[in-house]
Amino acid sequence: MPPSGPETGRRSRKRASEEAIERTAAERTDALGARALRLAEYYHGKIETVPRVPVRSLADFSLWYTPGIAEVSRAIASDPDRSFDLTGRGNTIAIVTDGSRVLGLGNIGPRAALPVMEGKALLFKYLGGVDAIPLPISVESDAAFIETVERIAPAFGGINLEDIASPKCFRILEELQKRLPIPVWHDDQLGTAAATIAGFLNAIELTGRDVRSMRTVLLGAGAANIATARLLLALGHDPHRLTLVDHKGILDAERRDVDELMVRNRWKYRLALQTDGGDRRGGLVEAVEGADALLAASTPAPDTVRPEHIRAMASGPIIFALANPDPEIWPDIAKAAGAAVVATGRSDFPNQVNNSLIFPAVFRGILDARARSIPDEVVLAAAKELARHANDAGLTVDHILPTMEETEFSPHVAAAVAEEAVRLGIAGRPRTRAEFYRIAQEVMRRPPKLARELARSGVTRPMPDEKSPRRRKR
Amino acid sequence: MTTPKGKTEAERLNPTATGPSVPIHLRPARTSDIAQLVPLILRLKRLNEEFDPLLKVRPDAEERATEILRHDISDPEALVLAAEGAGTDKDKVVGVVRARVRERPFYSPEKEGVILDIYLLPLYRRRGVGEYLLQELSASLKAKGAGVLTAEFPVQNEIAIRFYTKQGFRPITTLHGRTM
Out of 3.40.920.10, 3.40.50.720, 3.30.565.10, 3.10.129.10, which CATH number does the structure's domain A208-339 have? Predict the structure, then answer.
């Protein structure tokens, strides 16, 4: 794609237009926040327990509860694996957080994290047919976190870790993956990285690039970008053309804090050694010089990426500005500076890099295959399948990822995930890809239907601030 | 500059003999190396700072490191080795070892060789380089009369503990401290 936009020297005017864009987006965010708070007060939470079985009269409880249920317990006691079939365990996951890094809000604690975890649970159900229990926990140490999750694991078919500060999120994920016989996923690492990789694969195809020869800059070295870097290397990206930049500058093997990283963050240390700054030294300015792509997932700070950074890159660069809620650079400004493809983390711009494209389908596939873990191969299988669907639907600079409305991709991603788990020999319930697809499609179809039916019958109360029932949710 | 035994040391420190997979060239340090050695010593001290607040690096640590290196390079009871890199890092000092032979008035063996500082730039770590350093160091200190090899490092440094344990070291004495 050729770079577009005026190359003018009218700096003051450009500056004013940048501010206008920023103002509009900020106002939009504020309005949504105010409405979300009003709705939270009205609905008192977003999910509730709903029976899965018919209850015609209290007599039925002799089957759903004692005495009949004792037989079901006996069956599980003699074969614990049957807990996945004879209860909801096989379709139920826990969303566990300590609230130490919630959205861009920082360490707000487990209670304040609850609304976010509820929203996540709603997404898991609505998009993936996965029953997810929001579970913010109050823990003082990594060891306590790990032990708590270990102790609740018997009730769950999988664990989704959420909004945990870096670097402890790496340690906790690694340790739980080692200890638990069920899959453990940290969405802020893996979900974000997989969605990023999916968009990235299409962006490089669209701009005629090759992952093995391109130069990429990752801005921010937190949970998401450390996972993204690992996946890029797994895809064949040359480590010496991969530059990670954080608030201390380029992450190279001889940076002043590298020994501190060895002790405190060995995942970041490992990348410092592998990439050695992509053979570069300095800061963002030095990193972006001639680079093909900039994947920014940094702590939100306005103006982190400037138009001059983009102008210094190779012609028609790929820009992912994923900080939430405010991207490192607004898409219009990035495009004016020559970006060929721009993605953000927001739904109100094209190319939303959204974990919701990934995690419901990944868990659907993982649970359907009854996989024991989620290795990187599975994560990449999800990313590639997602990329393929945006590609099939017509690849353009404003469509490198499916939107949340294009839901057809989801059972395909689930089936790709399940198939990869079978291929890797970690599936407890192997099936063919076609069978996995059929199962996923059926299970995923149910929750939207449920929501529709409950709304139609008035069991779910309508939005209190909406007159017309035709207006979209969210 | 060179100790009476410097020549034999230089001969013995031939990396091609039992060289690690990452080629480094180990040799006795010279006064002209000091400018390159000091930053490595400071990196080590800043690493130690991670382990205990009582290991806070002093503002004048750089000058002190310069003095100590200058002294130790010409002290026959001390040993300072410089590790040079290979390829594009040829002529670049990528690691440093500082050790000293100490009397043990009450115990035998009568002399110990104490490893005081050992630092390698990250890209030269692992792959057997540390083990090689230790072998060469051990031989040099033995030649100076040491009958036991010891190492001083922060007790919280688990990476060092793992490394030395693997090399057959065990804790002998400990140093407990508190702020006064």
Answer: 3.40.50.720
Chain A within 8 Å of B51 (Cβ-Cβ)?
yes
**Does any CB of chain B come closer than 8 Å to the CB of residue A254?**
yes
Regarding the domain delimited by A355-456, which CATH topology (the fold level of the hierarchy) does it fall under? Rossmann fold (3.40.50)
Beta carbons of B41 and B69 less than 8 angstroms apart: yes
- CB nearest A273 (choices: B44, B122, B157): B122
Strand A184-186 to A216-219 pairing: unpaired
Domains A34-47+76-187 and A208-339 are alike in CATH topology: yes
Tell me which of A23 and B66 has the higher pLDDT.
B66
What ipTM does the predicted assembly reach? 0.81
List Cα–Cα distances, A204 to A97, A189, A327, A377, in angstroms. 34, 22, 21, 20
pLDDT at A469: 54
Place of tokens 């036991």: B148
Strands lying side by side in the sheet with A131-136: A131-136, A92-97, A158-161, A184-186
What does the alpha-carbon distance between residue B106 and residue A89 come to, in Å, rounded to a whole number? 67
Structure tokens at A89: 């365990």
Q: Strand, coil or helix: what is A360?
A: helix
Least confident piece of the model among A318-332, A352-366, B59-73: A318-332
Stretch among A7-21, A105-119, A359-373 having the lowest mean pLDDT? A7-21
